[in-house]
Every structure is written in C-alpha cells, then in structure tokens.
Design goal:
Blueprint: H1 2-9, H2 19-70, H3 76-119, E1 136-137, H4 141-157, H5 159-165, E2 175-181, E3 191-199, H6 214-217, E4 232-236, E5 239-245, E6 251-262, E7 265-272, E8 275-276, E9 286-287, E10 290-298, E11 304-313, E12 316-317, E13 322-323, H7 326-333, H8 342-360
Parallel strand pairs: 1-8
Antiparallel strand pairs: 2-3, 3-11, 4-5, 5-6, 6-7, 7-10, 9-12, 10-11, 12-13
Organism: Aphanomyces stellatus
Protein name: Aste57867_1093 protein
C-alpha cells in the first residue's frame, strides 16, 4: 500500500528528492486546496444569499413604481391609433386654416375694392344720393355680413335727415306725402315718394313684426294678391334678407332690420339690394330701387305716433337697371295711357297714379313739402 502511494505522487522531475519530503509537500498542498475550496464555496453561498436578498429588496422598491404606471400603460396598437387620430385632426385643422386664409384674402381684396371706390368719390354725399355701396352685397359670407351691417347702419344714421329733407313737420304734427318725381336716369330716374306721420293706435311692439313681414308692410305684391308664408331668404341675427317674385314678375331682394333708439323710440330700415353676387339676374328680371324708414315714438304726453317714408323707383330691367317701358308700370297701377299723346304721357301718368293712391290711401290731402315734392 505504501508503495502504491509513493508511485502515485512521484514524478520524473521530483525523482531526486526524498520520498517523504515529496509526500509531505503533496499532502500539505492538498489540505490547502481543500480549505480554499471550502472558503470559496462558503463565499459563493454567502454571495448568492446576499444577491437573492438584494433582488427581494429591489423588487419591493420596484413594485410601487410599477403599480403607479400600470394604469396608464397602453398597448402599442392603442398608442398608434391615438397618434393616427391626432395626425388626422392636425391635417384637418391645417386644411381649415388654409381655407380661412384664402377667405381672408378674398375679404381683403373685396374691402380694398370698396375703399378704392370710396376714395374716388368727390364732395359730400347727401342721403338722397344713391351709390352702388348702398345696394350691393358680395357673395363671400364675411364680406356679405360687413356689407349688410354697413348698408343698414348708414340708413339708420340718416333717418332724421331723410325725414327732414322730405318736409316732415315736428313729430307731434300729422303729415301725408305722395308724389312722383319725373327725373332723368342720371339724377335717380323717375321714382315715387310716399310718407305719413300720424297717431299710432296699435301696440308699440308691433314695429318688431315689420322686419319679419316687411314685404306685406311695403305691399310688394299689391293688396289683392297673397304673399308666401315666409319670404325670409337669409337670416343673420336681427338682419333679414327677404326674397320673392311678385305677381307682376318683380324680383324682391329686401334687406331690413330694426334699431331701438331709446326706450320710447324704435326704427326700422329696409333697402332693396340690386347688385347681389349671390343672385343671378337676367334681362327678363324686373326690379325696383326701394328705400324705407319707419319710426314709432312716444310723445311727452304719452301718445304713441308713427312716421314712415318710402322711396320707390319705377320698374327696372336686368343688371343694367334701365327703366322699363312706361306701359309696364301702367299695368301695375291699373291706369290706361294708350290714348294719351307721347309728349303728355309722363304728366298724365303722374296725375293718374296720384289719384289711384289717394283713392286707396288716407283722405288727407298731401301737404306741400320743403324738399321740392308737390
């Protein structure tokens, strides 16, 4: 047995050393390595236990953080869908902004055109001088809105001036006016003026219905023909645009609104819009220039009164606004001038139409007014 051990530990290089010394050295080395392996195993075990304990500590720290974001965590498909919706919304908003920019460019162009037309005017414009701006509307919604406001505000601003220019007396006096002014086209053309000032027996709030029923108030379809249930073609807040065709084929395009001047006074204005980009007009269309002011007011003694003024042209043809033949106007008023010589037709037409008005209007004879109307 001892021989076997010696043979196991002896090598060629150590053959010169004593055998006992060699064996002793080998045994010490084996014991040393055994102890070191024991130490390494213990350290590895301790390190593993430390790491496992550290993992548990870190998991305890991570769990609250994980729970905090668990409710907001979405699958990638949901995130992608949300991002696609945002992209679509941004693209739609961009297109809307581009359209709005183009609309503003159009508005600036139209307003520049309007300003240029104003700059070319010389002298002061009286309320009796018609201009294209008082009867024009663009098709562009923003320009159209501004145009409506300008026309009606300009009319309201000139209310007292219009009544004064046409000879209306102080508000507590009665007044009746009807006349036909025979004038050349350059001076407004032949037109009818009519007005009244009198006690107002109906409730004051009746004036509020004027805007809704302005076509009936102005008798655009004459008294013997009914009107459609509603003639409002456009409604822009309190501003209304009435559109219809009368029994005599006249195209109506009346802009109207009301103003509360004070607790004791209200005003309604109405204007026929002849140049309207939103309305196509042919030579077959018949129209009229029409401007209307009405005011209901209360006197200091408590009486309610009303005054109104209407200026109405004869029938006009198409966009050129040329006066239609007088024979057409004869049919409207029910007068016959076929037997009257041409040189007397204007005077006879004026005379007969005034008689027609007096037969259906108030019994009071017209007053001579200060504005040159008789």
């Amino acid at each position: 047995m001892e021989a076997l051990c010696k043979a196991e530990f002896v090598d060629a290089k150590e053959g010169d050393q004593p055998l006992d010394e060699i064996l002793d050295k080998k045994l010490r080395r084996r014991v040393y390595l055994k102890n070191m392996r024991r130490i390494y195993r213990r350290e590895a075990k301790e390190e593993r236990a430390y790491l496992l304990n550290k993992v548990r500590e870190l998991e305890q720290l991570l769990e609250p953080l994980h729970n905090r974001f668990l409710g907001t965590k979405l699958p990638w498909r949901e995130v992608a869908r949300a991002m696609d919706e945002e992209r679509h919304h941004a693209s739609k908003e961009r297109n809307q902004l581009i359209a709005q920019a183009h609309s503003m460019d159009r508005l600036v162009f139209e307003m520049n055109t309007w300003v240029a037309a104003q700059m070319s005017l010389q002298g002061e414009l009286g309320s009796h001088v018609p201009t294209w701006r008082e009867r024009s509307l663009f098709a562009n919604p923003q320009s159209r809105h501004l145009g409506k406001a300008w026309i009606l505000q300009q009319m309201y601003h000139n209310t007292d001036r219009v009544f004064l220019e046409h000879g209306f007396p102080p508000k507590d006096h009665d007044f009746h006016l009807f006349d036909i002014v025979m004038a050349p086209p350059d001076d407004g053309g032949t037109h009818i003026v009519m007005g009244m000032q009198h006690d107002y027996m109906m409730p004051p709030d009746r004036l509020a219905t004027y805007c809704e029923t302005i076509c009936a108030m102005l008798r655009v379809n004459h008294m013997q023909f009914p009107l459609p249930p509603s003639t409002v073609g456009e409604r822009d807040g309190a501003v209304l645009l009435h559109q219809m065709t009368t029994c005599f084929g006249e195209h109506i395009n009346i802009l109207t609104t009301s103003f509360d001047s004070s607790p004791t006074s209200s005003t309604v204005v109405a204007q026929e819009i002849l140049a309207d980009e939103a309305v196509s007009v042919t030579s077959e269309h018949r129209r009229r220039r029409r401007s209307y002011w009405a005011e209901v007011y209360r006197l200091p003694d408590g009486r309610w009164r009303r005054r109104f003024f209407l200026q109405l042209s004869l029938r006009l043809c198409g966009q050129a606004e040329e006066q239609a033949p007088l024979e057409e106007e004869e049919l409207v008023w029910g007068v016959d001038l076929s037997h009257v010589p041409p040189e007397f037709k204007d005077a006879q037409f004026r005379h007969q139409v005034k008689n027609v008005w007096l037969s259906i209007g108030p019994s009071t004879r017209p007053h001579k007014n200060k504005g040159g109307l008789s």
